[in-house]
């Protein structure tokens, strides 16, 4: 496997100050750093969560219009960036190199078959080990457990991550009393980056999902990052105190994982969870 970890998640916001307050005070991600005029980051270096107010850019080629598509993306650590680039070349899949300073090392951006923008970042020889990354997460008090990506054709999207990125499909770990949790491979794929369903969750949108599980939100639509925290109930209490709508799913889809869903001030879907 060439992918070892989720390097970062990037989200768009309409109000940077409001986003900072929300993720710092409500979700509890700590104090961010300003990495550009309209960009803040939670974590260390280019690793963690990045939030950006996208510029009003519009470019035109002979046949297409292009805007700030890269603001929302997920990035992965890889020990073989050249290999991924070679496989993208052979498959005639376009990619661009990240600008200097965007990541702590060389990186490329591309688009998966479901039109999700993804980046792959080279792990340097002197870069953090898996153990060091876990230590960073421990120091932060939070981590990125998984990223949910919506795909109309789950099998096509999963094949991209297996064949291009060298990832491996894993077995979904559902609670013993999960009931009717859907694990149909045409609806859900787990690209595993560790135990307890860590990694990428590729999901086909299910309009009946909120009704089936008595939720206020539909986490199968539009994708979302999932943040693991030390005390999900404390996060939930802070959110409810300020009137943020919560879907309290409890332990329902993943073994020993208490999950809540919500939207940030810019309507990005989020999951916050805790291993129990």
Kindly describe this structure.
With 276 residues, the protein is an alpha+beta fold. It folds into two domains: 3-122, 2,3-Dihydroxybiphenyl 1,2-Dioxygenase, domain 1, CATH 3.10.180; 141-275, 2,3-Dihydroxybiphenyl 1,2-Dioxygenase, domain 1 (Roll), CATH 3.10.180.10. Helices cover 21% and strands 34% of the residues. It has helices at residues 16-27, 81-90, 130-140, 154-163, 209-213, 232-241; strands at residues 3-12, 33-36, 39-44, 47-52, 59-60, 65-66, 73-78, 95-97, 107-111, 117-122, 142-150, 188-192, 199-203, 224-229, 247-250, 257-263, 269-275. It is globular. The model has no long low-confidence stretch (mean pLDDT 92).
Topology:
Layout: E1 3-12, H1 16-27, E2 33-36, E3 39-44, E4 47-52, E5 59-60, E6 65-66, E7 73-78, H2 81-90, E8 95-97, E9 107-111, E10 117-122, H3 130-140, E11 142-150, H4 154-163, E12 188-192, E13 199-203, H5 209-213, E14 224-229, H6 232-241, E15 247-250, E16 257-263, E17 269-275
Parallel strand pairs: 1-4, 7-10, 11-13, 14-17
Antiparallel strand pairs: 1-7, 2-3, 3-4, 5-6, 8-9, 9-10, 11-14, 12-13, 15-16, 16-17
């Amino acid at each position: 496997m060439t992918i070892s970890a989720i390097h970062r998640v990037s989200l768009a916001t309409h109000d940077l100050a409001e986003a900072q307050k929300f993720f710092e005070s409500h979700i509890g991600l700590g104090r961010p750093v300003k990495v550009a005029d309209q960009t803040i980051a939670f974590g260390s270096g280019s690793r963690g969560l990045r939030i950006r107010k996208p510029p009003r850019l519009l470019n035109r080629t002979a046949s297409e219009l292009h805007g700030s598509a890269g603001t929302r993306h997920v990035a992965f650590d890889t020990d073989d960036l050249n290999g991924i680039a070679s496989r993208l070349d052979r498959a005639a899949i376009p990619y661009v190199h990240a600008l200097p300073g965007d990541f702590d090392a060389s990186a490329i951006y591309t688009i998966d078959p479901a039109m999700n923008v993804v980046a792959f970042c080279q792990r340097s020889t002197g870069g953090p080990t898996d153990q060091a990354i876990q230590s960073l997460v421990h120091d932060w008090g939070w981590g990125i457990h998984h990223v949910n990506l919506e795909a109309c054709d789950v099998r096509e999207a999963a094949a991209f991550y297996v064949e291009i990125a060298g990832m491996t499909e894993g077995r979904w770990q559902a609670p013993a009393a999960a009931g009717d949790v859907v694990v149909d491979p045409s609806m859900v794929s787990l690209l595993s980056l560790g135990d307890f369903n860590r990694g990428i969750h590729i999901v086909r949108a299910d309009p009946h999902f909120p009704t089936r599980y008595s939720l206020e939100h539909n986490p199968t639509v539009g994708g979302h990052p999932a943040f693991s925290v030390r005390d999900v109930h404390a996060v939930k209490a802070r959110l409810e105190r300020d009137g943020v709508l919560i879907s309290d799913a409890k332990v329902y889809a993943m073994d020993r994982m208490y999950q809540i869903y919500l939207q940030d001030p810019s309507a990005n879907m989020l999951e916050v969870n805790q291993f129990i």
